[in-house]
């Protein structure tokens, strides 16, 4: 089926190509952020474990964090491989790919994702340092139960950072994957 501007909006979910599946760009950027947070949080985690469990060496804590980081990378890669195999119809899934794709025309979705990418990306960029530092400090607050160190305003900025980052990476993923699908279709 030849896709033109008018046929894009009327195509059914069955007519649209599903490969590549959504998610790999979002996953890679999420892993990069996760690495940055773990890397910056490692000294704090080592200090907290040193206070709470003095018999545990710092190298053991660092090794545990590294293993946890690689575990998250492995699980993410397996999930992305599973998604791509479902998109290629090698594996079956009863999950819907995107309800938004069934409701909104392609041009409207693309414009919406572009706006969300710019707005979310800008907000994430503006709140990055405070968001990451607050997340790291939150580790210490929870481990030591120091409720007086908790600042609601910084916590809100942290949540705002992670939400805006997620919106931006989700939108970027949708834009790039839809673009690749358009190129593969031609």
Strand content: under 5%
Write down the domain tally.
1
> Could you describe the largest sheet, including whether it forms a barrel?
none
Summed over residues and divided by their number, the pLDDT gives a mean of: 87
Could you say which structural class the secondary elements and strand pairing correspond to?
mainly alpha
In short:
This protein has helices at residues 5-10, 24-52, 58-87, 99-103, 106-144, 152-185.
Describe the structure.
The protein is mainly alpha-helical and 186 residues long. It has one domain. It is 77% helix and 0% strand. It contains six helices and no strands. It is flat and about 60 Å long. The termini are close together. The N terminus is likely disordered.
Layout: helices, strands, pairs:
Blueprint: H1 5-10, H2 24-52, H3 58-87, H4 99-103, H5 106-144, H6 152-185
Helix pairs in contact: 2-3, 2-5, 2-6, 5-6
Essential attributes:
disordered N terminus; mainly alpha; 186 residues
